[in-house]
Amino acid sequence: MNNAEYYKIQxxxxxxxxxxxxxxxxxxxxxxxxRFFSLISAxxxxxxxxxxxxxxxxxxxxEGIQFEDLYYCDLQFIMYQxxxxxxxxxxxxxxxxxxxxxxxxxxxxEVTNLEVLSAPEDLPKTVLLDNHGEIPIRxxxxxxxxxxxxxxxxxxxxxxxxxxxxxxxxxxxxxEWQPLPExxxxxxxxxxxxxxxxxxxxxxxxxxxxxxxxxxxxxxHCNKEVVVSYQLDATxxxxxxxxx
Length: 244
Ligand SMILES: [Zn+2]
Hints:
By secondary structure, this protein is α+β, with helices and mostly antiparallel strands. It has seven helices and eleven strands. A hairpin with a 6-residue loop joins strand 4 (92-97) and strand 5 (104-109).
């Protein structure tokens, strides 16, 4: 018997997935909450993502697609949804001072209050390469950071070498056309050109969506609107604000 509570969600990148893909998130159990805390506390900086993703894999049920193949831009939205279904009674809160009247504000952040940007309707599905014509291109996926880590290690390049990370990410957008080692060779030889890379990076800068991490709130004291930015982080999953 499975007592877990699952909630079907609609991710902002929905239109980009094949028909029939369904995504559900699970309410975290107390065991998972503590486990998460110990994993996170033990993790090195760069491992936090991997730990988090391994953990999340158990909390997200995907039909018609693997979790790793979800688009990276949907991850933040999924995180907010898991946080929301797990702590229904304890919404996230942000504390600030009204910029107009100095009143102290505690603003609850409900997922439904967040403005969510959907994947762009007109996102290109192909890119023009100088020597190869129109090639399929795709946005960043959840698995890409791990592929980048592994690949850089195999090339004896440090995984924190940012320009090279970007280079490998650029090439991964073409991985429906050729496997990464092949793409790497093409770029090394200049067969994929500097101008090709610019077109790919233009595509990646367009392929952005997800929750806009700010809440608009009307100050009760002066009735003016305050906009507060917020960033979800790991601690939001194991500490709650129980109120004043
Ligand atoms: Zn005010």
